[in-house]
Amino acid sequence: MTAVCGVLTHQQLHDLFADLFIANGLTVSYALMGVLLLVFSDWGAVAKLNNDVHEYEDQMRRNSNIEDIEQYTR
After folding, report:
1. Which of 14, 22, 28, 63 has the fewest C-beta atoms under 10 angstroms from its C-beta?
2. pLDDT at 20
């Protein structure tokens, strides 16, 4: 079977993945380590973003006088 309009056949895909991942026995391990590194680095970015949001909200609450007004008008 041949590829039609740039679509790879099943055998071509199989050969491509065999060349990419099976050619070297450690390539799969390196690919897995790369994926895990990306996951953990993205996790850190999400945690930092969440922390930044909470810091911003806390700062806005500190800058507003609403809590002071509520404390002294009760």
Report:
1. 63
2. 66
